[in-house]
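User: Continuing from earlier, I have the next pair ready.

Assistant: Great, send them over.

User: Here they are, in order.

Assistant: Folding the first of the pair now:
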Amino acid sequence: MAKPEKASAVSELAEDFRTSQATLVTEYRGLSVTSMKALRRTLGSTTKYSVVKNTLTKIAAREAGVPIPDEMLKGPSALAFVKGDPIDAARMLRDFSRENPFLVIKGGIYEGKAVTKEEVMQLANLESREVLLAKLAGAMKGSIAKAARVFDALRIKLESGAPTEVAASVDVVAPVEVVAEAVAEAAPVVEEVVAPEPVIENNKEEA
């Protein structure tokens, strides 16, 4: 590779390192061209999957200030630069590797630190942002529905002309208690939500 081309490749890689939510390192040796194309389609437009020379990767990582251990770059390597949700990308790579054993996950960079293959697998086992938000919405919806039933029951009792003490005897949760319950039910889900924002890049393969 000529020096100008090498410099351009390193510059592009360094920018990918800087702008990615995570970088996952894989070995692709044995994957067919068809399988590589299928993997890129699986990862989608928010993850750039590039086959890169290890020497260029090391230089680019150093320029970007990214810690990437030498042992992670042994053998032919391909990098998944994740611009979207790292959990989704890790899960997609894990699932693809189960059906295509030639794809080996070696580790990666997450939240500015080098992570092992085992840590990438742990990330893949987490629930995605969309799932956590759906759980949050479900918890809030359930609590609001419960409050609506309580108020409706009280209204019916009052409209029926029941004495105040009878209406008060209905199994009713006070509005403040209902709100507190809704917050308590939703809180565990809220604490788990992590939301990396996607940036779209085009895939590019470089020998």
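And the other member of the pair:
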Amino acid sequence: MTIDSHTTESRRKARSARNVPALVLCAIDDAMAQAWRTLLSTRRPRVQVHRGSVLDIEAQAVVSPANSYGWMRGGIDAVYARAFPGIEERVRKAILNTHGGELPVGEALAVPTGETMPAWLISAPTMREPGELLAEDTVHPYLAARAVFELWRDREVDPGRPAAEAIDVIAMPGLGTGVGGVDPQNCARQVAVAWDEVFGG
């Protein structure tokens, strides 16, 4: 066994020992907080609910339920843009470099925030165009959540550094529940399905 393969095997074992991230579901209103609480169960032991800002959480990553082009001018994305100077430019550059300028709904990428904590912003679009009102039967919250969870499980945040090693805690706001108009209960159900599909439940 080579040193490289031994290192890879060690990392694989470390990831399997902690096979899910801690997920903190954040809500700034009662309706979203109540909806998130439906995800709390013994089958999802590392899932928690926080009534307050996503930036209150000591997390290695925060989720941006962005648009496909990486514009961060409204809702929680505007909050991130103020908190992490230059983050919109970094997100748009990463989208350009990896997806030709448009990150499809159902895909996610991690971008450094420039801060110690959270060190990463996970851009996971819930809409193609900025300010898009989503259809009542949309599955975009599910697609965005699944993309976040699969990024954590399968991808690297830096070359040779798996996301599962770099990120223990993910802070997630409502997905599509602001400008997108998704009902909080619908969002919570879809995030639960995505979690159980990726991590088991």
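Worth noting for the second one:
Residues 19-199 form a domain with the Leucine Aminopeptidase, subunit E; domain 1 fold (CATH 3.40.220.10). Confidence is low (pLDDT under 50) at residues 5-17.
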